[in-house]
Amino acid sequence: MKLHFYGGAKVVTGANYLIETGKTKIIVDCGLFQGPPELAELNYLPFPYDPKTINYVFITHSHLDHCGRLAKMVKDGFSGQIICTPPTRDLMAVALEDAVHLLEDEAKDKKQEPLYSQEDLTKTLGLIRVYDYDQEVKLSSNIRFRLKDAGHILGSSIIELWLLKEKNKQTKIVFTGDLGNPPTPLLNPTEYVDQADYLIIESAYGDRLHESKKERKNTLQNIIKDIIKRQGVLMIPSFALERTQELLYELNDLVEHHKISYLPIFIDSPLAIKITGVYKKHEKYFNQKTRYILNSGDDIFNFPGLKFTNTKQESKNIIKVPPPKIIIAGSGMSTGGRILFHEKEYLPNLNNCFLVIGFQVEGTLGRKILEGTPVVNILGQMIKNKAQVKAIGSYSAHADQKQLLNFIKKISKPVKKIFVVQGEKKPAEVLTKIITEKLGLEAEVPKYEQVVEI
Fold first, then answer.
1. pLDDT value at position 38?
2. Model confidence at 381, in pLDDT bands (50, 70, 90)?
3. Which of 247, 268, 420, 236 is nearest to 333 (CA)?
4. Is residue 77 domain-shared with residue 161, that is, in the same domain?
5. 20 to 30 A Cα–Cα from 184, which one of 29, 41, 112, 241?
6. Out of 309-313, 342-346, 402-406, which region has the weakest mean confidence (pLDDT)?
7. Are residues 309 and 360 located together in one domain of the fold?
8. Whether 265 and 407 share a structural domain
9. For residue 357, what are the contacts with CB-CB under 8 A and spacing of at least 6?
10. Region class of 416: left (phi > 0), else alpha (psi between -120 and 50), else beta
11. Strand order in the sheet with 128-130
């Protein structure tokens, strides 16, 4: 039995793991590499395995760094089952549809073939089989699985795999995907796993702690009050999936309880608007409090001042609206999307504010603005970075160091080996050191293309 690391090794993105057990080959996640050009170029290389020989693909959740190369696998010959939850299927359909057009534009610029086509995506969606949380499913005589709620985004899963090595001897491998940062306004908390022989755990925030949720809401409220006082523009580059919906939930509360004065709030992201529609479809996956609010008749995704801008013209018209105003637009790391046009317009003004609410990968424009780079290149123009820059870490959907360690501690029987993935070098290594020295467990940060016998 072998475990291969073909992504997420010393980097946050590109999650892609291969398990070989007997004649069966299983892939867990097939994500896009995101960040600097040298990392993004890996997306266009042939897979280090033959997709035709893969039997099953598990997708932990619908972020592109976990599912963005799935249609490329199908293009290259994969025809087995893709396994995920119902919300992940529906969110992937929207996210990958959007990605098709972005990848086509990127391919034209680079004068190369797109990563995959609309036809490839249609085939991909036809291979998906959905399962709810906590169903134990027998795939074959020697493979069982169960999906547990990771609490990261709607439909996100921890994958438990039981593999029969020999007669009456089984090995259990657990992939955390990305673990959540509870409590969140919409979702249930992360479920724990009671036993694992091998654990593959994320580490995006493996070297730091988030501030409290109460503190984050107060911080958001204070930032908005300050923007109103300064008559400025608050720019929030937001991931269309989960971060935007959480922000809407909290802004709804601030507006309806008169904690902030009225001001226009723009959701300038067609993708976020579509994804919000998917959220409405899967309300049964929300936590009890959110379901209660919805059942009481409050539309948490609609309140005074909120405007959804679908068309390009509507987006362009935002500039005509005088400040103060809030603009929430993709992409979350400022690597593309409509947020770039707003950054270009509003970053040079000291009265404005750039608010970071999600992880910014090294090398991205969002990371450069966050780190205070005085001049940044936006759409081919050098723009002065003079606006205030704020960050609220606990809006991240990722578990912090304490939460990651707590997840490990909840496993009743000691794990034989822990592999720390989906984090940059420093956070991954810091977390690994703590696991080894304080928890007394064997752990390592795998290298790209490393193969481990299990």
1. 87
2. very high
3. 236
4. yes
5. 29
6. 309-313
7. yes
8. no
9. 236, 238, 243, 247, 391, 392, 395, 396
10. alpha
11. 128-130, 81-84, 56-58, 24-30, 16-21, 2-5, 451-453
Please tell me whether residue 164 adopts helix, strand or coil conformation: strand
What DSSP string runs through 105-146?
Answer: HHHHHHTS--S--HHHHHHHHHTEEE--TT--EEEETTEEEE
- With residue 268 as reference, give the H or E element that holds it: strand 265-268
Domain of 225 in residue numbering reads as: 213-395
Is pTM, for the whole model, over 0.90? no
Take residue 427 and report the two structure tokens written for it.
């956070």
Same domain, 203 and 117: yes
For the stretch 129-186, pLDDT in tens is: 999 999 999 999 899 999 999 999 999 999 999 998 777 789 999 999 999 998 888 8
Distance CA 165, CA 197 (A): 12
Output the DSSP codes for 36-72: SHHHHGGGGSPPSS-GGG--EEE---SSHHHHTTHHH
Query: Could you count the other beta carbons within 10 Å of the beta carbon of residue 189?
Result: 14
The neighbouring-strand residues paired with 158 are 148
At 389-423, the pLDDT tens digits run 999 877 778 999 999 999 999 998 889 999 999 99
What type of residue is 133?
Y
Per residue in 209-268, pLDDT (tens digit) is 987 777 888 999 999 999 999 999 999 998 777 788 888 889 999 998 999 999 999 999
Domain match, 286 and 413 both: no
Return d(Cα 149, Cα 135) in angstroms, integer: 11
pLDDT score for 298: 78
User: Helix H segments across 235-364?
Assistant: 243-256, 270-281, 288-295, 312-316, 339-346
CB neighbour list of residue 395: distance below 8 Å, 6 or more residues apart? 216, 243, 246, 247, 357, 358
Give the pair of three-digit tokens for residue 139.
Answer: 């795939």
Cα–Cα distance measured from residue 208 to residue 134, given in angstroms and rounded to the nearest whole number: 31
Q: How far apart are CA 406 and CA 413, in angstroms?
A: 14
Domain count for the chain: 2
Strand order in the sheet with 388-391: 306-308, 265-268, 325-329, 233-237, 353-356, 388-391
Please report, as a single letter, which amino acid is at residue 158: I
Q: Are residues 374 and 429 in the same domain?
A: no
CA proximity to 212, closest of 427, 356, 392, 430: 392
Backbone angles phi, psi at 309, to 5 degrees: -110, 105
